[in-house]
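Protein 1 of 2
SEQ + STRUCT:
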Amino acid sequence: MTEDLGFIHRFEPARDSASEETLLVLHGTGGDENDLIGIGQTVAPGAAILSPRGNVLENGAPRFFRRLAEGVFDPKEVRSRADELARFIRAAVLRYDLDPSRIFALGYSNGANIASTVMLLEPGLLRGSVLLRPMLVYEPAERNDLEGSAVFISAGRMDPIVPVTSVEKLVALFEASRANVTLKWQLAGHSLVPSEVREAAEWLALQRTRV
């Protein structure tokens, strides 16, 4: 664990010497840089893992941006925090000698939401993202072209936190930006189920061959 580059974070070098991919792992509310390491290694075997801890605290629980209430956010603050994470990614590319064209994100809940915002604001910074339980938290005034980028969204039909309409709006926004979107609905709530981790791994394996 290290505290420079603007975020407390954990970096795990690629376990496969032939792998040039990096998986940016982004935790949910109350998580930290260690939470999703195991899932990340399952989803992207052999890849390097870059896992920052959110800089915002909500009653002591780390997050990547504030919420004013459940499902209510300040667009300016969300954008500012997305810009902050984008700077961290660029700095990490230099620090750890990463291939900038082979960075994928894996985010859960709040982590998925910051990953989607970075993708929408910074075309090409992330090659693709696995978004687990995301919702639409920020809609850019400008419409960036995300052709060549890919998104895997796994949402829960019985999720008490994320409305179905919010997921659908996020999908529509990515599709309007010409990203390749795969949407999987789970018979689940906000918690993850083993099958979607397997589905995410299969999807990412396919994307990694296309880089």
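Protein 2 of 2
SEQ + STRUCT:
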Amino acid sequence: MHLPMNWTSGFPEDTIMQFNYLPTLRAKLAVSQNRAQQAEEILRAATPYELGAPATNNWTSLYPVYVRGEAYLAAHQGRKASTEFQRILDKPGIVLNQPIGALARLQLGRAYAMSGDQAKAQSAYEDFFALWKDADHDIPVLKQAKAEYEKLK
């Protein structure tokens, strides 16, 4: 989907839109296009706001942190990535039941594996599997995680 550059002109004073939602989407796009460094730069705008939660909806909470972690993984910076994903896990009252709460465990395992810390990587994967123990076994992310975990052994 292509959005015109001015599609947000109706929200010029919306802090969450301008400094959380849009930078996160732009950074996610940059990561998907193998432009991890650009994603990190884009997310600087979100840093002061990433721990905030709108009064009516917290769906944006910590998503900039998650995407920054993805950018670090894409840039093969496992230690920086692990710091970002751990920040998410350290804030369960902000994350609540958002998908990034579970997926941060998986990404943390990947970051530790990238950093060469096999014990922490295995533990993070196991935490992810414990949360997903009743999930459909055909979910692609779960199948991929199991394959990655087997390579750690």
